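User: Sequence recovery, please. Input:
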């Protein structure tokens, strides 16, 4: 009896609800008289496919939706809800016999039978110190031989590799050292584990192999070093794991030794890595086919702001694209079927949220969608234009440009430059609801990939080393000028905003180019890098001291140039500042001190903080509240509306939610 059919009979209502959640988004064309309009609620209610795991028999996917696990047959049909317990669920992993699924939830490792029933908790250790996002047990992975589940734990204040028995009665610490150990992967025979270890002196990571005794659940001797990556001078690159060949003789990983991220083979017994891909593009996520003859991987070849799944001979040779799409997008997480005939993967684009697809491994047919998550109102979303411009030093900068569809020819419109974080992030051809919404509301939107961004090779990514608040700022300023020169933007109605390092860049811009922007939205960014490296989590502190060229004592001038607090007298632009009150990445003090300094200099600033939020805003009510406040701020300074019948006595009329979401911090002097 098929597994899905069995569960459907036990839980018919759950099956119907799950199907509605996953399949109601099947695109349907609007009539000629209708136009779709994206609302903030539409963006908030997006439920793209995130985690998926294929069963050992290749017949069923486990997927996460709305904090629960669902089962979806690969040949089509109704998805079935498997869990209903509280807490989000991540790290899905099937037992080798296909009877159980391991997952992480509420700080511990759990299993649930695939025929339904109450999940069983296997680990329940107190969270470790430091960053709460890394302080618990997570990323479970069944041994290929069963019985043991490998997982990453932060309970000791840093990442460690541990195992727990399938009944939860025995657990063992495999990596007792003080260094971070993560991204563990079992060998095919379940007797070895490859993992990535990181410390200050080898911050880009080194691959280590540990021999494991399946009888006792203990390591056999000390782990041996397989390969140590050269340390990235900017601290922003690291080894992200390795995958075993089916015969256990070699591993494939991604290294940047050529200046770009490419695929390398390393003998499991030791030896020099062999590079098997090359070119001015980035490769990622390699995975051997079941017979070991072919690799599937993700690559940006052809368009650096897009990603597609490619396949190639396992030991080098010509690569070919698996599936071509009319609209550039982002494909990710390839997974082979057990027979090697199909490859499953996730795909999204500017006009569709992430879905699960399957393609013939030989590329002989059009990929088939197994899910349809795109909301109906997104069907008229636009594909941004890839644009380039020259920065002040002549360096070419690329970005994505969204323009309002209803704009009249020759009209100069208000424009928003939205800056990604990282700075090693990259704006790509993805489902970007916020940019689509702003364009719909009449704003030109430019997302610049300034120097320091990933996706353009090691040299470009490290151009900002020892140059914070330097040429990276010019990259964005020349992007704003590009919009004006093209006749798209009104030079008096330019705004800038962003989160994390995007917030940092916003703060840099208003002191470096004080007369360029009419409004600025600074979200949980860094304004004092010395304060940041003192108070952030240890890995971020090390990374940023590398990017700054050393500690504040070693490089005082570099830190001084990056300290916005020393330059607030230059600010002319009204600012909206927002921060999560429990942020473990960027200290909330950065925003508090920034606002204090601005007010001491009589600058215009509005300041809101959100309780129980970490880095960014995760709670739906907080996200909606933040968007509404940002829109009101932009409307006031760039695109005012008239006849609003408001009785507010405040300079900016921020919307009030039914229940208080943000803590306002008005200037009470």
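Assistant: Recovered sequence (669 residues):
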């Amino acid at each position: 009896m098929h597994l899905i059919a069995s569960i459907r009979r036990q839980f018919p209502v759950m099956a119907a609800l799950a199907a509605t959640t996953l399949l109601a988004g099947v695109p349907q064309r609007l009539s000629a008289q209708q136009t779709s309009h994206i609302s903030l609620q539409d963006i908030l209610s997006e439920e793209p496919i995130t985690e998926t795991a294929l069963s050992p028999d290749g017949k069923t996917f486990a997927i996460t939706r709305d904090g629960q696990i669902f089962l979806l047959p690969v040949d089509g049909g109704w998805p079935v809800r498997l869990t209903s317990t509280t807490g989000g669920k991540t790290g899905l992993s099937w037992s080798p016999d296909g009877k159980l699924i391991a997952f992480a939830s509420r700080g511990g490792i759990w299993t649930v039978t695939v025929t339904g029933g109450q999940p069983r908790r296997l680990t329940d250790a107190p969270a470790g110190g430091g960053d709460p996002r890394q302080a618990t047990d997570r990323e479970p992975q069944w041994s290929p031989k069963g019985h043991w589940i490998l997982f990453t734990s932060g309970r000791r204040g840093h990442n460690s590799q541990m195992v727990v028995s399938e009944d939860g009665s025995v657990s063992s610490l495999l990596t007792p050292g003080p260094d971070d150990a993560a991204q563990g992967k079992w060998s095919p025979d379940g007797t070895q584990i490859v993992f990535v270890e990181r410390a200050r002196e080898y911050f880009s990571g080194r691959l280590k192999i540990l021999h494991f005794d399946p009888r006792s659940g203990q390591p056999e001797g000390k782990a041996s070093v397989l390969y140590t990556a050269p340390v990235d001078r900017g601290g922003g690159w690291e080894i992200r794991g390795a995958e075993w060949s089916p015969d256990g003789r070699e591993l494939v990983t991604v290294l940047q030794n050529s200046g770009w991220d490419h695929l390398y083979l390393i003998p499991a017994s030791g030896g020099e890595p062999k590079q098997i891909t090359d070119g001015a593009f980035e490769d990622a996520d390699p995975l051997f086919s079941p017979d070991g003859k072919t690799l599937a991987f993700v690559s940006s070849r052809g368009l650096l702001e897009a990603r597609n799944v490619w396949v190639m001979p396992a030991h080098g040779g010509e690569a070919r694209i698996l599936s071509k799409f009319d609209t550039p997008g982002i494909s990710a997480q390839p997974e082979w079927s057990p027979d090697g005939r199909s490859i499953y993967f996730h795909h999204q684009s500017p006009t569709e949220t992430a879905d699960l697809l399957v393609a013939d491994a030989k590329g002989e047919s059009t990929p088939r969608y197994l899910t349809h998550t795109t909301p109906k109102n997104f069907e008229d979303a636009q594909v941004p234009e890839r644009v380039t411009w020259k920065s002040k030093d002549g360096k070419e900068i690329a970005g994505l440009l969204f323009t309002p569809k209803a704009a009249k020819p020759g009209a100069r419109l208000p424009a928003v430059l939205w800056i990604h974080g990282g700075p090693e992030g990259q704006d790509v051809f993805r489902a970007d609801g916020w940019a689509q919404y702003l364009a719909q509301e009449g704003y030109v939107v430019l997302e610049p990939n300034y120097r320091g961004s990933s996706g353009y090779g090691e040299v470009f990514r490290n151009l900002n080393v020892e140059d914070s608040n330097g040429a990276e700022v010019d990259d964005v300023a020349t992007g704003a000028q590009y919009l004006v020169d093209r006749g798209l933007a009104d030079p008096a109605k330019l705004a800038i905003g962003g989160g994390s390092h995007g917030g940092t860049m916003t703060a840099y811009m208003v002191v470096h180019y004080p007369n360029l922007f009419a409004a600025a939205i600074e979200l949980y960014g860094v304004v004092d890098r010395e304060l940041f490296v003192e108070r952030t989590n240890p890995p971020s502190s090390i990374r940023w001291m590398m990017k700054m060229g050393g500690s504040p004592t070693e490089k005082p001038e570099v830190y001084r140039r990056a300290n916005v607090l020393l330059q607030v007298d230059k600010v002319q632009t009204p600012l909206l500042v927002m921060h999560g009150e429990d942020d473990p990445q960027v200290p909330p003090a950065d925003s508090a001190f920034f606002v204090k300094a601005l007010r001491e200099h009589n600058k215009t600033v509005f300041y809101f903080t959100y309780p129980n939020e970490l880095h960014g805003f995760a709670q739906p009510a907080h996200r909606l509240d933040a968007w509404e406040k940002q829109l009101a701020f932009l409307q006031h300074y760039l695109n005012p509306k008239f006849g609003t019948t408001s009785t507010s006595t405040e300079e900016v009329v921020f919307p009030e939610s039914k229940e208080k979401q943000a803590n306002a911090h008005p200037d009470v002097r």
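DSSP finds twelve helices and 38 strands in the chain.
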